[in-house]
Design goal:
The structure holds two protein chains of two kinds. Chain A has one domain: Luciferase-like domain (TIM Barrel), CATH 3.20.20. In chain A, about 35% of the residues lie in helices and about 15% in strands. Chain A is built from twelve helices and 13 strands. Chain A has an eight-stranded parallel barrel with strand order 1-2-3-4-9-10-11-13, surrounded by eight helices. A two-stranded antiparallel sheet of chain A has the order 5-6. In chain A, strands 7-8 form a two-stranded antiparallel sheet. In chain A, β11, α8 and β12 form a beta-alpha-beta unit. Chain A is globular. Chain B is an alpha/beta fold. Helix content of chain B is about 35%, strand content about 15%. In chain B, the strands form four sheets. Chain B has a ten-stranded parallel β-sheet with strand order 13-12-11-6-5-2-1-16-14-15, sandwiched between helices. In chain B, strands 3-4 form a two-stranded antiparallel sheet. Chain B has a two-stranded antiparallel sheet with strand order 7-8. In chain B, α3 links the parallel β5 and β6. Chain B is globular and about 80 Å long. The chains are: A alpha/beta, B alpha/beta. Chains A and B meet through α2, α3, α4, β6 and β8 of A and β4, α2, α3, β8 and β10 of B.
């Protein structure tokens, strides 16, 4: 039997290859315009892509910059706030999930929570967040509030060896807890509009968050009434043990970066193990494998295009790279599906070119081949992923009381 | 030559302005309400749509307030969504300088300016109290003076960040591989006891260069901030002579900082009630006021001031003859909580006695006294007079219903203003919000 998967896309600038902006099909002077993002995400929506993630970073250099590089003039620089781009896209799209990147060290968790709830309202239930832990020294200099934090990756390459990174992940966990608690703070039916008694809401059904953590506290309820999904979809990218545990404990969807099908199976097992140990969330953690793709009409043309990009700026990436025709990509998807992942998040090497290939070739062919989940009319992102809408923890308490 | 009227459209927020009990009142949170409101305001050629901010749900005597509308969207996120469904109208949100950070808020506003193609605005407010602070990492931590110092430094830093990219920073030369021009981005450093920032901004210069800045405070500090930084003042001065005096005072401060009279617009909040005759308008005004101030609303208002339980009092009777409980903070989240309670009560008694008002009528007088009541002709003439005689540059108009509270104004008053020749008959194609409002403020380009 064929294993079925979901297809998502990850969007960033002119694409994931650092030389992508130099391609003739690129739109490098439009990367911060409304039209660019509208075109990309509408195309993905029309094709049935289950969700789009939108990258972000609170620095000019991006999150993976070389510490001493200064401003690189040969790379795309400049971006828009991802949560606002997603909010802008909400009324312009119909089914696609909108998942902005959200960093957890400096922004106020209360603003993040109400922003995500508002995205869920404006999109009628298609909001998510990709949670990013930690901060770079550049980010700290931009905010100027906290001097402490990670300085690059530890020499061992493992974040679990660095107390600053451990703290960053604990803080990210608190931010997710706060987002979920605030989302739950209004029960579904808190607004009663009882003209007789003059009460707009039933205050017994609105609950203060009363969140007390190691890094911050939030006393009040959300200002935003309950949104269509109940809680936004929480996602995280994870490469290592601490991030795997973080995702297992806090996320609904984890993005993993296997080098191939075998490694995918190993990681899926590790993530499931971590989930068995630490997970409180009621639903099974969904696993999406990341795949960086460059797609041309022939294998030779794809290799040639890739070589042209690499000659200009060699890529450094965490994700497995698939270069070839739509059929090549579909084979990779099929293999990863067999390894047990729930979905694939495709990272187009070049935008809009490789996204166009995904929407016009990969998805229709993969769908026809029966390897995609049915693109049914499920209205919310959670439902499209087979996840139930979340009910408020406070409502649940009443039922059990 | 007659002066041009400017109008902002205020989406009614969470207070007793909104009559949620009206059978035609819609949702305060569904996006469709905001979309309807924005499209109608755009049909009326309003300069901008205006949103207040919520940072904590109001409480009354230690419990969440339940009589008026409560709950609203995140300001920036809803404005970004509205940018997608509108083309010309400005999008202005209230955002606190106390519970935001300059780098983050400047990038969000620049983002909104890109997404809206030059229609973003920021109503900069300060807030300091521990009640709201309890929802933030910051906590409540600033006294009045530091609050405005932080606001001024915040605005200054935001402007420097917005100006830090050269206009032509993005070269995107595929052949040479230069995406950015040399010296395309200026470093912005600022050290004080309030901020310690050494930043490189990450959003390219936006269509307006710097988003519009609106200011709402009325204190001396507030007026200084407005003179230095604001493009619009959202004032509460609507009584004609008082408004003229405020106008003279604020506009008189501009020359000293090298600004022109028109570079700072004054748009006080204004409500309205229309009728086919003056009598009909007055009757409707009374009906609406009674709906805005129901008996329990009036009693609650007094309880907030006195911090006592008045549930036994008759709203149609006189003010309670008791002393306030000043032992603790009472009306959490209401704007009046900083007022000196006793002088406030003395004032309430004075008004009530002079005009022989019951509790409910007193509260109506204070919170539901509609600015313009009359036939569309009378209202249009009134608005025009304020602008022509330099009492205001226009108004921030708020209706009492959501989301269609400005439909009637758009249908019946706007055409008359247009006939008078003092209101636009179309938006200028591709105009930014600054251009629509006619305020200058393009920064000097950063030279390489």
């Amino acid at each position: 039997m064929t294993e079925k998967v979901h297809i998502a896309v990850a969007l960033d600038g002119a694409g994931w290859h650092p030389a992508a902006w130099r391609e003739p099909t690129a739109r490098p002077t439009e990367l911060t315009t409304a039209g660019y993002w509208r075109d990309l995400v509408r195309a993905a929506d029309d094709a049935g892509v289950v969700f789009a993630t939108i990258e972000d970073a609170l620095t000019l250099e991006g999150r993976t910059a070389e510490a001493d590089a200064g401003i690189r003039r040969d790379r795309v620089r400049g971006r828009l706030d991802a949560l606002l781009v997603a909010s802008f896209l909400a009324p312009l799209t119909r089914r696609i999930g909108l998942i902005p990147t959200v960093t957890t060290t400096h922004p106020e968790p209360f603003h993040l929570a109400t922003g995500l709830q508002t995205l869920d309202h404006a999109s009628l239930g298609r909001a998510g967040a990709r949670i990013v832990a930690g901060s770079s020294p550049q980010e700290r200099a931009n905010f100027g509030r906290r001097g402490d934090g990670p300085v690059g990756f530890p020499a061992s390459g493992h974040v679990e060896d660095d107390p600053a990174w451990q703290a960053a992940f604990r803080e990210a966990g608190e931010v997710v807890d706060a987002i979920r608690r605030l989302a739950d703070s209004w029960e579904d039916d808190a607004i009663i509009r009882d003209v007789e008694s003059g009460r707009f809401l039933d205050r017994e059904r609105v609950h203060n968050a009363d969140f007390e953590g190691e890094f911050f506290s939030i006393t009040g309820a959300s200002i935003v009434p309950r949104s269509p999904q109940g809680q936004p979809l929480i996602t995280a990218l994870a490469h290592q043990s601490i991030p795997h545990r973080f995702a297992a404990e806090h996320a609904d969807v984890v993005f993993i970066t296997p080098g191939g099908a075998e490694e995918a199976a190993v990681i899926v097992a590790e993530v499931e193990q971590a989930a068995a140990e630490v997970r409180d969330e009621p639903e099974r953690l969904r696993v999406f494998a990341d795949l960086l793709v460059l797609i041309e009409a022939t294998e030779a043309a794809a290799v040639e295009a890739w070589d042209r990009l690499e000659e200009r700026a060699p890529i450094a990436t965490d994700a497995h790279i698939a270069i070839g025709t739509a059929a090549t990509i579909i084979d990779e998807i099929r293999t990863l599906a067999a390894a047990g992942v729930d979905g694939i998040r495709l990272r187009p090497a070049r935008l809009p070119a490789d996204l166009t290939a995904i929407t016009e070739q990969v998805i229709p062919v993969a769908r026809a081949a029966g390897i995609l989940h049915d693109d049914d009319a499920s209205p919310t992102l959670r439902q499209r992923l087979g996840l139930p809408l979340r009910s408020s923890r406070f409502a649940a308490q009443e039922v059990s009381a | 030559m007659s002066r041009r009227i400017h109008l902002a459209a205020h989406f009614p927020g969470v207070n007793n302005t909104t009559v949620w009990t009206d059978p035609t009142a819609g949702s305060q949170i569904d996006f469709s309400s905001f979309e309807y409101f924005a499209r109608n305001a755009e049909r009326g050629l309003f300069d901008y749509l205006f949103l207040a901010e919520g940072l904590r749900l109001r409480e009354h005597r230690g419990r969440i307030h339940d009589l008026d509308v409560l709950g609203r969207p995140n300001t920036l996120a809803i404005l970004a969504a509205l940018a997608a469904v509108t083309e010309n109208i400005g999008l202005v949100g209230t955002l606190s300088t106390t519970f935001n950070e300059p780098y983050e808020l400047a990038r969000q506003l620049a983002t909104l300016d890109h997404l809206s193609n030059g229609r973003a605005g920021w109503n900069a407010v300060t807030s300091s109290d521990a009640f709201h602070g309890a929802n933030f990492r910051r906590g409540g931590f600033l006294d009045h003076g530091d609050r405005y110092r932080r606001a001024a430094e915040f605005a200054e830093l935001s402007k420097r960040l917005w100006a830090s990219w050269r206009d032509d920073a993005i070269l995107a030369d595929a052949d040479t591989g230069e995406f950015l021009r040399r010296d395309a981005i200026e470093q912005v450093a600022h050290r004080s006891d309030l901020f310690d920032i050494d930043a490189r901004f990450d959003v390219p210069r936006s269509p307006q260069h710097r988003p519009l800045i609106v200011q709402a405070g009325d204190s001396a500090d507030g007026r200084d901030f407005a003179t230095a930084h604001a493009d619009v003042i959202f004032s509460l001065h609507t009584e004609f002579e008082d408004a003229q005096e405020f106008y003279r005072d604020v506009k008189g401060r501009l020359a000293a900082v090298g600004r022109q009279e028109d570079d700072l617009k004054i748009l006080p909040a204004a409500s309205f009630v229309l009728g086919d005759t003056l009598e009909e308008a007055r009757e409707r005004s009374r009906e609406i006021a009674l709906a805005q101030v129901r008996p329990e609303t009036a009693i609650t208002y007094l309880e907030q001031v006195w911090n006592r339980d008045f549930s036994g009092y008759d709203p149609d009777g006189p003010l309670p003859d008791v002393e306030p409980d000043t032992g603790a903070e009472s009306a959490q989240g209401f704007a009046n909580r900083h007022a000196a309670v006793r002088s406030r009560i003395a004032k309430l008694r004075e008004v009530a006695e002079a005009e022989k008002l019951s509790i409910r009528d007193l509260i109506i007088r204070l919170t539901a006294n509609h600015t313009f009541v009359g036939t569309p002709d009378q209202v249009a003439a009134d608005i025009d007079r304020y602008v022509q005689e330099r009492a205001t540059d226009g108004f921030t108009v708020v209706g009492h219903l959501t989301p269609h509270g400005l439909d009637e104004f758009t249908d019946r008053v706007i055409p008359l203003l247009q006939e008078r020749g003092t209101y636009r008959t179309s938006y200028e194609e591709g105009a930014t919000l600054r251009e629509t409002l006619g305020v200058a403020g393009q920064p000097v380009a950063v030279e390489a």
